[in-house]
Amino acid sequence: MMREAVIRAAFVAACIEELVAPKPGNVSVHADGHGMTVADFVRSAEAAAPKLCRCGAALGERILGAVVATRTAVGQNTNLGIVLLSAPLVMAAEQPGRDLQAALRRVLDKADLADTEAVFHAIRHAAPSGLGQASRHDVRGPADVTLTAAMAEAADRDSIARQWTTGFADVFGPGMQTYLDARARWPDPAWAPLGAYLWFLAAFPDSHILRKHGPAVAERIRQDAVLVRRRALAVPDPSAALPELLEWDRALKVSGINPGTSADLTVATILAYRLRHDDEREAE
Fold this sequence. Notes:
Elements: H1 2-20, H2 38-52, H3 59-74, H4 80-93, H5 100-110, H6 113-126, H7 147-154, H8 159-166, H9 169-185, H10 192-203, H11 207-213, H12 215-233, H13 242-254, H14 260-283
Helix pairs in contact: 1-2, 1-4, 1-14, 2-3, 3-4, 3-6, 4-5, 4-14, 7-8, 9-10, 9-14, 10-12, 10-14, 11-12
């Protein structure tokens, strides 16, 4: 139970940390948006945590339970992507050993048909905007493949699904490195999530934007993020870039553009960091 409490606290803390730094187009303490507030995301994290972090629960059971609890608490889909990324991470953290990514790969390899059915149910329940139809393994139909196989089908168009097929390579690789670099470079570690967020947004078209607005808009935002990231990294204190970040934030929100997947991947990066850090402290 002690380990479960530590993991639950790490999940809620990761969700809250991601809200502190400005993330253009996404909800933060600097600006609400898209009909959602910071309070909605805090309540969502607190509601999802008990289901998501219940030791011994199956992967799909955790995801479905967290999504239903969130919908009950806030009445809308605020954290489907966060839950899909966080569930394998918290399960991996429950396993003995120090290699979190290796443990995560084992969790993904063991996901079965029942997990797929539960996740399909969770996605239908969350009803994310821009959800289209797939020619194979559509979430509106019965589950007929393992969860990893279903994610592989969507990996070329969805960055969250791609993490499931690569052992969270983007999260543990450049996402984590950018987050660590920001913590080391900038005087206030509260800005570190911005470093990871801008890397994800600049590295590939955001999946949420892609679904809602199409490839041309998603690519334009990615190219804008490259320039914004370059300027933010050029200053010793990122607070100097806050006016530009907030101006872009307003422009994106006026256009209804929300880089939600980049924010979800940022939460996963922070959570992976915190779970690793907790393991290191326990081992001391």
